[in-house]
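Form P-L/3: holo structure prediction, ligand zinc ion.
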Amino acid sequence: MLVEAHSKVRASHLKRDAYLYVRQSTVRQVFENTESTKRQYALKQRAVALGWPVERVHVIDTDLGQSGASAVDREGFKRLITEVSLGHVGVVLGLEVSRLARNCTDWHRLLELCALTDALILDEDGIYDPNDFNDRLLLGLKGTMSEAELHFLRARLQGGILNKAKRGELASPLPVGFVYDEQKRVRLDPDSQVRESIRLFFQTFRRVGSAYATVKYFKDQGLLFPRRLRKGLHKGELVWGELCHSRTLGLLHNPRYAGAFVFGRVQTRKGVDGKAIYRKLPREEWFSLLPGVHEGYIAFEEYEDNQHRLRECALAYGLERPRTPPREGPALLQGIVICGKCGCRMTVRYHERRGTLLPQYVCQRDGIEHAGNPCQRIPGVTVDRAIGELLVETMTPMALDVALAVQEELSKRLDEADRLRAKQVERIRYEVDLARQRYMQVDPNNRLVADVLEAEWNQKLRALEEAQEESERQSQSDRLRISAEERAQVLALTTDFPKLWNDPNTPDRDRKRMVRLLIEDVTLTRGGNIKVQVRFKGGTSATMEPAVPRPACKMWQTANEVIARMDKLLDNYTYEQMASILNEEGLYSGKGKPFNGILVGNNCREYGLKSRWHRLREQGLLTVEEMAQILKVSTATVNAWHRYGILKGHVYNDKQQCLFEPPGADRPFKWQGRKLSKRHPLIEFVSDHVKEVQYEA
Ligand SMILES: [Zn+2]
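OUTPUT (holo model):
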């Protein structure tokens, strides 16, 4: 054997490096099966014995803990393949080489590459040359056996598992709230806090009826929910955390909480790239569902009820939301909006106002998961309008560009066809020349030959004529046809789009289809303005920032300058006086209407301006009652005195009611027998009576 082995190793092999591939499929094997690892490393010594210098024996052991069932995710195996195909490898070392790859495709690829690059393969049994037929056959068999071994192993395991699962005896990982006892029977968790939490959870769902409301209740009450760690260093430990929506659904859908044994709810299979694909199966396809196998937190009937309720909720609110096909609603970007804050897909909500549906784009995945507020909401009308304008605006030059490019491409192709036709004509002309020469060279007396040659020449001439005509006609008709078509297309693209887009008869669904033809997706971010980032099909992008519409309550707000003016006028005028001043100054209310006394009054109250009455009171002015008390007269007298200018008052409202300046030292007194009109005012009279409206500059 050794002699034979030596004969296979040649100088060309020794010139290149040796690669030792070490693998243990699971982490446990790595720790427990150290013997096998040692054997794998011992192979290195064999390579040295065969003549490879020790520093040129490379060990690839990055795949420790990776299964050999597929090359995907096995960096080491990939590296080995790369090195072999680059021709760097003289020999591949491995313990039972067929275990290099448990998958026939990977194994045969390695064999093929080793054969092509003339690399040897070495294991504990011997050394093989993949170029040698017998060795190759043996290696192929080894690979097949190895895969078969894996298959039988798996089938035996799987069979055992399935049998147990059918009887409901399979010990599968339990959800939180259950534990296995010493006899491997399922029991409720001995931790009373865990049990109470789960009971409360199901009670809450029974009461509130939706997963979201259950999450919200736990959040509002500040209650934590237990979770058992499935893997990692602290595997099996209990941790307490916030209850989230997906967990809630998981619990509600899990029949184990109703004391049922279940197996095969998820199907796993390998995808094209070798990665596992998980698919949730509908209930009728589950491998086994056995109610009443162990104690539960709820009755099986309640579990069924819960499923029914969840299904109803899901129908009401929509299930998963990937990129969805266009539906009937008017929201233009339904299904292609992405949240600029968290990257989730946004959904559409509609609310109706005066008979029209108004869309709103909402990012609510996170909000639902943790029963919080939506990440962001964006008014759809603004965004949709901006997108529409963008499309109508960009469609014209964009379409022209495309059309021109197409035109160019087509004419290039036409030119090429023309050139080909010209060549064909050229060739026939050459043949005509030949035929003519042959005819000329023949002895004219040799009639028989001369006739044949003449006929041939004539025939060629006819062919030439035909070819020329054909070529001409073809190229002309081509040009005509295409230019007409082209023109129609260009026109259609540039004129039809805006027309079609703005046509109210175009169904929303069609408009959405147009959007999807042109736009890949749209990202929305709300800051002070809405940032709309559009990604067109084909890679170009555009960014817009339409202004956020003012909320309805603010739309009718009176401008701040007007309010400031009112504040100033209030020092000297009543509401009606102010209204006429404001109107004269050309100022309008928030709704664009002219002012009147009532409107000014409403505005002043709404914006919390201090009333004229309060202003005058602050200046120390007295009410008619206070004045009457001080002067020891009736209120009627006070008013009369004011009318005749004996008292100084200031009008504070449009009913001409006044506040009075304190009388001071020269207070008026009753003067019996003297007409009021004849009495001289005691104090200097300055009236601010209604009629004398003073305008401020
Ligand atoms: Zn978001």
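COMMENT: The radius of gyration is 47 Å.
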